[in-house]
Design goal:
This protein is mainly alpha-helical. Among the domains are: 3-104, Orthogonal Bundle (Arc Repressor Mutant, subunit A), CATH 1.10.10.10; 156-235, no CATH class. The chain is 53% helix and 8% strand. A two-stranded antiparallel sheet has the order 1-2. Strands 3-4 form a two-stranded antiparallel sheet. The radius of gyration is 43 Å and the shape is elongated. The termini are far apart.
C-alpha cells in the first residue's frame, strides 16, 4: 500500500483529552491517530515501529519515544504476545487518559470517607485499644503466676567465661545436677577442666563464642555419646587396639624368629 492512498483511506476522531494535552508532542498525536485507526479492525494494532516510521517519515527512535510517552500517560496499552519462537507487539487503546485529563484540569481526586484523627470517635477507639492491651498483659501475668511460672531471666542464668581468671562463671548446682542426669557416662568436673584447657589453647577462637551454655551442652553430649559407644564396643568384644603382629597371606599370625630362644 502506498502512503498517498493510506492518507486518503481513513478519518480519525481524537479525544479532547489528547488534543488539548500540552505534555504530548504534536507529532505524537499523529502517531496516536494512525494506531487508533488500525485498532478498528481487530480491536488492537500490531504495526511495527518500522511500519509507523515509514508512514510518518520519521526515525524509529522517535516512534519508540512517542509510543512510550503515550503509554505512560495512559492513552495506549502495550502487550507482547508470544507465538512459538517469535513475539508480536499488540497495542490497545487505554482509558487512562481520563486520569491525565483530570490532572490537566487540576481537579483533586475524590477523597474517601475517613474520620479525622482529631475527632472524638478516634480518641475513644484509641483509649479502648490501650485498655484492652493493658487487660491482656495483666491476664498473662496472672496466668503465669497461677501456674507458678517464672520469667525467662530467672529460668536460666547466663553462663559466661572469664578470660582473666580462666574459668567459667555463673554455673549453679542445679546446672551440674541437670548435666549429670542428662550425661551420666561423663565426669562433669573433669569435662569442665578439659573445656578450660581447650579455651586456653584456642583463646582467639573461644573469644568469638557468646552462648557458653550451648557450648557446654554440645561438648558433654558429644563425649557422652563417645563413652556410650566405647562401652557398647567393649561389651561386644571389640576393641580399638590394633593388632600389629605380622601375618602371612592367609591371615595367620607368623611365628616370631625369636620364639624359643628365651
Amino acid at each position: 500500500m502506498q502512503i498517498e492512498t493510506l492518507y486518503l483511506s481513513f478519518d480519525c476522531v481524537l479525544p479532547s483529552a489528547i488534543f488539548f494535552n500540552q505534555h504530548i508532542e504534536p507529532s505524537a498525536i499523529r502517531c496516536y491517530a494512525i494506531v487508533r485507526n488500525l485498532t478498528k479492525l481487530e480491536g488492537f494494532c500490531f504495526a511495527s515501529n518500522e511500519y509507523l516510521s515509514k508512514i510518518l517519515q520519521v526515525d524509529i527512535s522517535t516512534i519508540k519515544r512517542w509510543i512510550r510517552s503515550l503509554s505512560k500517560q495512559g492513552y495506549l496499552k502495550i502487550i507482547t504476545e508470544k507465538i512459538g519462537i517469535n513475539r508480536r507487539r499488540l497495542i490497545y487503546l487505554a482509558d487512562g487518559f481520563k486520569k491525565s485529563f483530570r490532572r490537566l484540569k487540576n481537579e483533586p481526586p475524590k477523597a474517601q470517607f475517613r474520620t479525622p484523627p482529631s475527632s472524638k470517635m478516634s480518641h475513644i477507639k484509641e483509649e479502648e485499644t490501650k485498655e484492652e492491651e493493658k487487660k491482656e498483659k495483666e491476664n498473662a501475668k496472672a496466668y503465669s503466676s497461677d501456674k507458678g511460672e517464672t520469667p525467662k531471666s530467672e529460668l536460666r542464668s547466663q553462663i559466661s567465661f572469664s578470660f582473666e581468671k580462666m574459668r567459667f562463671e555463673n554455673i549453679e548446682l542445679k546446672d551440674i545436677e541437670s548435666w549429670k542426669e542428662l550425661y551420666p557416662s561423663v565426669d562433669i568436673d573433669k569435662e569442665l577442666k578439659l573445656m578450660t584447657e581447650w579455651i586456653r589453647c584456642n583463646e582467639r577462637k573461644a573469644r568469638s563464642k557468646k552462648h557458653w551454655r550451648k557450648f557446654i551442652n554440645l561438648w558433654l553430649a558429644k563425649n557422652n555419646e563417645r563413652e556410650i559407644n566405647r562401652e557398647a564396643a567393649k561389651s561386644r568384644g571389640f576393641s580399638n587396639e590394633i593388632d600389629r603382629r605380622p601375618r602371612d597371606k592367609d591371615g595367620n599370625i607368623k611365628q616370631s624368629q625369636y620364639a624359643g630362644m628365651f
